[in-house]
Amino acid sequence: MTIHAQNRALSLKVDRSACAGHGLCYGAEPEIVDSDDQGYPVVVAEPIPEELRDQLGALVEMCPERALSVELPNSEG
User: Fold this and answer.
1) Residue 47: exposed, middle, or buried by beta-carbon count in 10 A (0-12, 13-18, 19+)?
2) pLDDT tens, residue by residue, 22-51
3) Among 15, 26, 42, 60, which has the highest number of CB atoms less than 10 A from its own CB?
4) Kindly report the CA angle at 17 between 74 and 5, in degrees rounded to 5?
5) Does the residue 27 lie in any domain?
6) How far is CA 36 from CA 21, 32, 33, 44, 68, in A?
7) What's the CATH number where 30 sits?
8) Is residue 55 part of a domain?
9) What's the structural domain count of the chain?
10) Taking residues 47-69, what's their average pLDDT?
11) What is the distance between the alpha carbons of residues 69 and 24, in angstroms, rounded to a whole number?
């Protein structure tokens, strides 16, 4: 999965109701995701810097619970 969005901010979203706290995401990409006191992911790079965007597809796909997703900003505004 390759994420391409020229000149657009991307956000990584965590579905906390789906997350089981495995820690794979923050173990793999600590520049993007950290953990809170309960071991659940917290996005620390918001919006995702352009130099980290190549990692997003693999990060989303590695989540065994499918609790991560990438969102483009709403084009309204």
Assistant:
1) middle
2) 999 999 999 999 999 999 999 999 899 999
3) 26
4) 30
5) yes
6) 10, 13, 10, 11, 16
7) 3.30.70.20
8) yes
9) 1
10) 95
11) 14
Positive or negative CA dihedral for 21, 27, 71, 38? positive
Say what the pTM is.
0.81
Range of the domain at 54: 11-71
Q: How confident is the model at residue 6 (pLDDT cuts 50, 70, 90)?
A: low
Q: Are 25 and 60 in contact (CB under 8 A)?
A: no
- Cis before 41? omega within 30: no
Closest-CA residue to 62 (of 21, 11, 25): 25
pLDDT at 49: 93
